[in-house]
Amino acid sequence: MKTIKFLLFTLFISLQVSCQTTAEDSFTDYKSNPQTPKGELLVNNSNLVAQVFKDSTYSLTPGVEVHEFAFLSKKGLAMKTFLYDIDLNKPDVSVVASMPDNKMEFSMQPMTQQAKALVNDRFEVVGGVNGDFYDMTTGVPRGVFVFNGMVLKDSYIDRNKGYLAVDKFNKVYLKDIELFKQEKQSLQYAVSGGVWLVKDSEKVLQTDNAVHPRTAIGTTKDNHLLLMVVDGRNYTWSNGMDYDDLAEFMKAIGADRALNFDGGGSSTFFINPGSFSNNFDIRNLPSDNGGDQRAVANGIIITKAK
Predict the structure, then answer these.
(1) Strand (E) positions, 123-267?
(2) Cα 125 to chain center, whole Å?
(3) Domain membership flag for residue 25
(4) Where is each Phosphodiester glycosidase domain found (predicted)?
(5) Stretch (H or E) spanning 245
(6) Is the residue at 248 inside a domain?
(7) 212-239 pLDDT, tens digit each
(8) Which residue of 32, 65, 105, 169 is 20 to 30 Å from 51, comparing CA positions?
């Protein structure tokens, strides 16, 4: 009797399933159709993008382009990324480090205020991103730091693997942190990063798979600097990336080398729109308190010589 009841139950379930699933059932067909060259690189050279929602680019000044990309990842998560592509072959375009109130004192200040303090007669402030990890009580950066040719900090911890440097000939590069002490006297600016993401155009193996908002910086073989922010901690807006996906992103868009910088609520991407009006506009959505800028220790600022 139990066998008959079991067979009848099995038949009933099979009929229910067959009634609910037919050949005419439709499934969502995700299509990734990029609209810009950077979008094409990301879609064609990575396994990150399931569907493109926004793919736009605009120029702030010759040699400085902004790319904004919103997509559904293949993990099923919303993503919004913001990217500077800076052509360092342009002699009037470069980057500098920033500090709160443009003073050689460690403290903390939102990036747009650091940018305003940097406005001067020598160059325009085009935009920028946040920099190194730091002590959130004192504002002391976790790694090495050089500002206006002065070495303000030459120590670092094991988690600092590399640094962004601008030497006194205005050459910009990413280097291993171990090289800092022998090169520090030749530097005009230096800001430490965290883990390497890309080296020699190959992804670096990662062991930390935590997902957060991120800031990353890369260099290309044709002398472009890439400053990237991905928003996170907001499920419907953007979820953030782990190091492996961040590395895949940076490699896909052409980075030969790339470093992770301070992320989480520190990740900030701002521009100076309107013919350098100095009314700085935050383009991303920082994760603190629904979009509030966090006071950070330092940043990387894009400049254009006047």
Answers:
(1) 123-130, 145-147, 150-153, 162-167, 172-176, 187-193, 196-199, 202-203, 214-219, 224-230, 257-261
(2) 19
(3) no
(4) 124-303
(5) helix 243-252
(6) yes
(7) 999 999 999 999 999 999 999 999 999 9
(8) 65
Host domain of residue 86? 30-279+293-305
SS3 for 97? strand
C-beta separation of 152 from 104 below 8 A: yes
Answer whether residue 20 is part of any domain: no
Which region, left, alpha or beta, applies to residue 112 given φ > 0 means left and ψ of -120 to 50 means alpha?
alpha
Given pLDDT bands bounded at 50, 70 and 90, which one contains residue 13? very low
Structurally, how many domains does the chain consist of?
A: 1
Edge-to-edge strand order for the sheet containing 299-305?
Answer: 93-98, 299-305, 123-130, 269-271, 281-282
Q: Which helix (H) or strand (E) holds 182?
A: helix 180-183
Asked if residue 256 lies in contact with residue 262, where contact means CB atoms within 8 angstroms, the answer is no
pLDDT score of 276: 72
Give a yes or no: residue 16 inside a domain: no
Please give the structure tokens belonging to residue 245: 């996906």
Cα separation of 296 and 268, whole Å? 10
